[in-house]
Amino acid sequence: MNDLKSCPSVQKWIENVNRYYNLSDEEWDSRLQTLADFCRSEEKDPDTVIAEALADRGEKVDFIRRLKKFVKTQTSNPRVGHDLENIVRSFFIHNGARVVTRPYRGDA
Amino acid sequence: MDFLEVVGSRRSIRIFKPWEQVEKEKIQRILEVVRLTTCPGNLQPWRAIVVERDKLSKEDRETLLACDNYQGAHVNAPVWIYWFADVEGSTADTFRTRVHDLVDLGALPTFYGWTHETIDSAIVKGETAPEGMPAIHSLIHGLPREAAEAVARQETVGACAVAVLAAVNEGLGTCLHMAASAEKTPDLHAVLNAPEGWVPVWCQLVGYPAESPDGGGQRPRLPFETLYYDGAYGKPFARNAEVVEKLEEEKLLQEEMPKPGRFEELKHLARMLGFPL
Amino acid sequence: MTTDIENTKTVQAWLKGLEDQSGVSRDEGLQRVAVLQDFCALVDKEPDQIIAECLREVEGGKKIRAKGRRFYADRITEFESSIGGGAGEKRQMGNYIRSFLIHNGVLLQTSPLS
Amino acid sequence: MEFKEVVGRRRSIRYFLPWRPVERDKVQTILEAARLASRAGNADFARAIVVERDALSKADLASLTLPVNAGMIEMAPIHIYWWGDLKAFARDMPSRAAEQVDMGILNISHGWTHTFINEVAYPQVVQAFSSDEVLCAKVTGCEAGLAISQALLAAVDEGLGTMLCTYPEEPARQVLGVPDSWTSLWVQFVGYPAESWEAGGQRPRPPLGELFHEGKYGQPFRGTEEGAARLRAEKMIQDPAPFSWRKEEVRAVSRMLGLPEE
C-alpha cells in the first residue's frame, strides 16, 4: 500500500478528494486496496494506467471495459459493483481522465 | 412565494431526486408564465419541447445525453425542457404582422406614430420612421437571417430567465444547461423532430432537489458598485444600506456560499445516488 | 445459487420479508444469503441459532435478549470492517446482516454514516 | 405558514440531516410556542431540557439511547426532553389562580374569589389532586401534552422535521439532572429532514365519524363533503400515504445515511 501511496497519480487523487471531503484513513486504506487490486489485474502501476488513459482515448475506454469485468470478479452484487467501480472511476477523474459516471438508476 | 423571495431563492440546482416525478401541471404552469413574458414587437420566438427522461427510449435518451457531454445534472434530472429560438418567429415579416396587431389592439398608440402605413413604409420600403417610433427602418428593414436568428436567440434567453423563476416559484429545482454542442445539434433535432429553423438555446432541467433547495447558499456575485453606475460610467450607483437590509428581510438577499456542511452534504448525496467521490 | 443455510427457518423468513416488504427478488435475496453465510462462518453459528440468541419465547410472543443482540451488533461491526471497498460498501454488507435480524423481529439500529 | 397547512403538514419525520444544525432562534420559537399552550390552573406542567446532540458525551448519548430511538437520536441535532412536573398543579394553582383573579382573568361572573380559591378549591381540588397519583399522572400527561403538541406544530412551521419518541427515564434523570418530581414523557427530535417533508404522505386516520360522536356514543359525527373540500383547498387535508415513490425515497435516504435499506 505504501508503494501505491508513492505514485504521483495516487497522491494527486488523495489530495484532490481530501481537499473537499477529508475521508478517513480507514476509508482510504480500503479505497487504495480496491485500486491496488485493479492495477494488479491490469499488471500495471497506477501512474502507467493514468498515463495510458490520458494518451489514448481508446485505451481509456478499454480500461473502463476491463474495470467492469474486474468488478464482476470481486462481487456478484450489482450495487456493490457500482460502488467499487466508482472508486476506480474517481481515481481516473481526479487525474484528469474524464470518464462517464452514472447514478444507480439507469444503465451504468 | 413573493417575487423577491423567488428571485432570491433561485440558484442552479444540479442534484435531483430521481424518484420524485414532476407533476405535469407544474410544467404547464412554467410554460404558461413564459408565454406572457416580454419581447420586442410581440415576436414570441421561443419554442419548447418538454421531455420526460424516463419516457424516452434508451437509445434516444443516450443520444440526447451525448449531445451535451453526459452532464451529471442532465443525467440526474427527470424533466428536460428544450428551449429553442424559432428564426421564422423573428423575421421582418413576423415583426410587421405582430406590430400591426398591436396597433389594432391599442397597445401601440397612433399618437407615437404607429400606423399600418408608417410600419409598412419603414419595414418594407426602408423609409425613415417618423419621430416617436423606434428606428425600425434601420433595425428591421432588410433584416438578414443571421440578425433574425440573433434576435430570436436573445429573446429566448430572456424567456428562459423567466422560465427558471417560474420553476422556483413551483417549489422545483432547476438550472439551464447547454442543449447540444454544434456538431451534435443535428442529433438533437433528429430525436426531438424539431423543425430546421429552431435553434437550440438552453436545456432547462427540472426536478425536485435532492440537494438542499438553497444549494449551499447564494452564489458569489460581483460587487454592486462595479456593475451599476449613476448618470455615466465612473460614478457608481450608490448602494443604500437600509435598502439592503430590507431586501435581506424580504429574502432577496440570502446567506452566501460557502455555508458550513456543504461538502458533508455532497458526500452523502454521492453515496445516495451512486456517484464517485 | 444454493447455500447450506438457505432452507433454515430464519433465512426463509428473511427471504420472504425481503420479497414482501421490500420487493427484493428471490435471486437477489439469495446473493445476500451468501453474505450471511460469511457472517455465520465468522461467528461460527447457524442462522437459527443467531436469532435464538437474540429472542426468547415468552407467553404470547417473543422478547428481545438484549445481551445477544448487543453481541451480534458488535460482531456485525467487526464483519463490516473486514470487507473491502469504501465506507458505503462496507456498511451495505453489514446492513444485509442487520436486515436478516430485523426481518426476524430483532429490532436493531445502526448509527448513520458520517 | 397558515395554521391549517401547518397542522396538515405535521407528521413524524424519522430521517434527519445529521450535519445540518438547527438555528438557535428556531429552537427558541418551539419553546415559546409550548410556553403559550393552554394549561389547567395556569400551572407549569410541561418542562423540557433542550440538548444539542453534539454537546453530549459519548457515554451520555449512549445512556439516553434505546433500541427504538437509536437511529434518530444520532441523526437529530436537537433533542428536547419533555417532562411533566407532577407537583405543578398543587404548587402553582393557588397562587396562579389568585393572580388571575387580581388581573381580571378569573372573575366573579364565573364564581372566582380569593375566598373560593383558599377555602374551597384548595382543599377540595388541589389536595385531592395531590393525594391521587393516578389522577395526577393523567392530568399532568394531558396538560404537558398540550404544550408538546404546540412545540411540534411550531417546529413544522419553522420548516423543520420533528417527531416524538421514548427515552429511558432514570438514565435521563441522571444525565440531565432532573428533579424526582418530574415524570418522563417524550423526547422531541428536531432537525432538518433528510426525507422530503411529505414523508410519504399524510398518515392513515379513521374517518371523523368513527372517532368522534355527536350527542352520545354511537351516533357518528357527520362532516360534509364541502367541509372536507375546503380543508383540502386550505392544505389541512393532504394527499394520503402511500406516495408512489415512497419506497424508492426511503431506499435512497437509507443508502445516503448507511442505514439498512431492505
User: What is the chain-wise order of helices and strands of chain D?
Assistant: HHEHHEHHHEHEHEEHH
The third-level CATH topology of chain D is: NADH Oxidase
Poorly predicted ranges of chain D (pLDDT <50, ≥5 residues)?
none
The rounded distance between the terminal residues' Cα atoms of chain D is 36 Å
User: Mind telling me the C-alpha Rg of chain D?
Assistant: 21 Å
Q: Assign an overall shape of chain A.
A: globular
Q: Looking at the chains present, what oligomeric state does this protein adopt?
A: heterotetramer
Assess the beta-strand content of chain D as a share of residues: 5-15%
Q: Do you know the CATH architecture of chain D?
A: 3-Layer(aba) Sandwich
> What spatial form of chain D do the alpha-carbon principal axes imply?
globular
What is the total number of structural domains of chain A?
1
Structural class of chain D: alpha+beta
Number of helices of chain D: 11
Count of helical regions of chain A: 6
Biggest pleated sheet of chain D: 4 strands, antiparallel
Mean pLDDT of chain A: 89
Counting DSSP E segments of at least 2 residues, the number of strands of chain A comes to: 0
> For the terminal residues of chain A, how far apart are their CA atoms?
29 Å
Give me the secondary-structure topology.
The complex is a heterotetramer of chains A (108), B (277), C (114) and D (262).
Chain A: H1 2-5, H2 8-20, H3 25-42, H4 46-55, H5 57-74, H6 78-94
Helix pairs in contact in A: 2-6, 3-6, 4-5, 5-6
Chain B: H1 3-9, H2 24-35, E1 46-52, H3 58-67, H4 72-76, E2 79-86, H5 92-105, H6 116-125, H7 136-139, H8 145-169, E3 173-177, H9 185-192, E4 198-207, H10 224-227, H11 241-249, H12 262-273
Chain C: H1 9-22, H2 26-43, H3 47-54, E1 55-58, E2 61-64, H4 66-81, H5 87-103
Antiparallel strand pairs in C: 1-2
